[in-house]
Amino acid sequence: MTTPTAVVPDHASERASGSTRVVPLTGAAALAGAVVAVLLAVLGVVVSRADVVLLALPLAVASAWSWVSRPPATSDGGPSTGLRVQVVPDAGARLVRYRIGVDGTGGTDAVHVRVSVLGTTPRDLVVTPGRAADLTGEAPILHSGPQLLLRLQHRLLGQDAAWFTAPARELDVEQVVTPRTVPLASLPLPHRLQGMTGNHQSARPGDGGDFRDVHPFAPGDRLRRIDWRATARRARLADELFVRRTSALADATVVLVLDSRDDVGENVEDWTGHTADGEGVTSLDLAREAAASLATSYAAAGDRVGVQDLASQARVVQPGGGARHRDRVVRAVTLSRPAGSRFARLRAPVVPAGALVYVFSTFLDDEAPRMATLWRAGGHRVIAVDVLPTPRTGGLEPHERVAFRLVALEREERMRTLQASGVELLRWQERHGGAGERAAALRTLARAGRGPR
């Protein structure tokens, strides 16, 4: 049976619910009481002792009462017991507050609730029905993106555990945490701007930009652009005129390529799997933050932004502009999760001509560097964004340290090969906490991209 999952967004408090049929089961105490009552009654009859038979009477009454007081088994259309979950994110405090309520507890003596928070070891709570209607707690926000917040299961208990219901189906509550965005003052641009309008100066003559040059009057030039002073200085014929030309404005096309095939954290000991658990920043945390920050900044500048994912051929958002499209791009970035797939592409995904391509990856294997090299060979400006967290090797064994060193050397060789092929590099995480390190790198990339467009 599939475990129901409720996805709760992070922008508002939402409710997730799951219900199950009531299937009461007789507890061991009630069965033992009934068996002892029968044995005492038989013994009293055999030995002709009325007092022994009277001893069986309270046990028989208690067992019968527990049987009669059980809640009726419900059908699919009948009453049921279920869980209500309300999640209230608090982005400022970096935590999520949740409220759990159990419905359909009438006639019960206690409720057994099993709670697992953020994939930790489940905790068993046995509370009264009134207390089960309002259980509260909080969990820290460790990472961005989709994550399993709660895994819940419950059952109802009768008086003295004389009866209990079968455990309800597990309810998974998934929280989607939007990555934080960093304001960026400098933005690299493609080598050539393809758009017809925007906020960036292109190499084409047109309207809206700064002064370009003085040029002889040609068909199509506007009369108001005639520069009479330049005409007086340069004209050699009576009908010769000169006009002042300005540069046209254009927008940039930016494609953000995520490598979500795996997610590694700061602790090298946990690199054996595709996902990173526990505290500390992970590679996908950095990738989501970088992609969301760049998408927000480029959209604010009037540029077109799109998203590609190397782990999924269906997770694509074509480049576009505007606030709604920006939200769509940020949402696609937020929902990226480690896929673990290692399929090799025969060719690089298609991106618009003249687009600036960002590749967010740890570059621990050859797939992302190969795609970046193919895009660069196709004439695109490509910036490889290194999102590998600063590794921590404190708990490694000697042979594990040797293996990590080999992996690090292979990664450094890939980075050198990328630079040799014309791909520019940007490390997103600050090495020593300096606030201006990343900004300085972006300023350098923005200056490097200026030239004929």
From TrEMBL:
UniProt superkingdom: Bacteria
TM regions (residue ranges): 22-45, 52-68
Keyword Thylakoid in record: no
Keywords: Membrane, Transmembrane, Transmembrane helix
Domain DUF58: 214-388
Keyword Membrane carried by entry: yes
PANTHER family tied to this protein: BLL2464 PROTEIN, POSSIBLE CONSERVED SECRETED PROTEIN
Entry protein name: DUF58 domain-containing protein
Source organism of this protein record: Luteimicrobium xylanilyticum
